[in-house]
Specification:
Blueprint lengths: L1 H52 L1
Length: 54
């Protein structure tokens, strides 16, 4: 029984490590993409606002 529990614990630990590694890889990409999109929206808003004001 103890051997089965150790195997389950090892499996869960391995899956958790893979999940954390994936998150560490994908989160910066998502953040960078979001930052770029927000920058484009802000720039577009500024340009449109300055065009309306002119």
């Amino acid at each position: 029984m103890e051997e089965v529990m150790l195997k389950v614990a090892a499996f869960v630990a391995k899956r958790l490590a893979k999940s954390i590694a994936f998150d560490a890889y994908i989160i910066p990409i998502v953040l960078a993409t979001t930052t770029i999109i927000l920058g484009v929206i802000a720039t577009t808003t500024i340009v449109l606002a300055s065009g309306v004001a002119a």
